[in-house]
Design brief:
Blueprint: E1 3-6, E2 9-12, H1 13-19, H2 24-44, H3 48-78, H4 82-87, E3 103-107, E4 119-123, E5 128-132, E6 139-141, E7 148-149, E8 152-161, E9 169-176, E10 180-182
Parallel strand pairs: 3-4
Antiparallel strand pairs: 1-2, 4-5, 5-8, 6-7, 6-10, 8-9
Amino acid sequence: MRSFSIQGKAISHGAQRRQRGFTMFEMVVYILAASILFAAAFDRYREFPGEAERANFQAILAQLNTAVNLQMMRAIVSESYSRPSELEGGNPMDLMLTPPGNYVGAFNGVDVSTMPRRVWYFDESTQELVYLADSSENLYRTDAETPMPIDSVRFSIANVYARDGSGGWEGMMLEPVYAYRWAAVPLDIPAPPAVPGADAL
């Protein structure tokens, strides 16, 4: 094997080759490994839109809870305890500075089958805020003995009163009309196969 001396150090021809980067063989193996990983990731991430929808739902729900809590704090600070009573059964979206882009309005007696999915709307007939899910494979109603798949979730503004018999007002909250669970979609990605010679780069 040929070797060359640079500043008193011997460098073999093979080491020089590794320092120059990938060989053609290593490049082909790397491309094949990356292709396998991409194919596996694409197969797993076909469910990603469902997880993205769930994350968007949770983000908007957090904003709605913040808006309701702000109204509660204002009532406490100003001692305007009639305000929470006025808000009970109202539209939570009216409390937000800017409703989300997928809020489509308030309706009375809407035909859900004609509504688009991934949207919020306020049902005036029941005084409930409704979210219509699109990817509902992991969405369940949990207030029954056996979890039941559902494709919508409902919320309402409700006042909370003391349970000690005094009937004193304790606060206000945005609560689900029925218990539910929207489970996360598993997104485990398999580890890429080892690439020969990659440890020498």
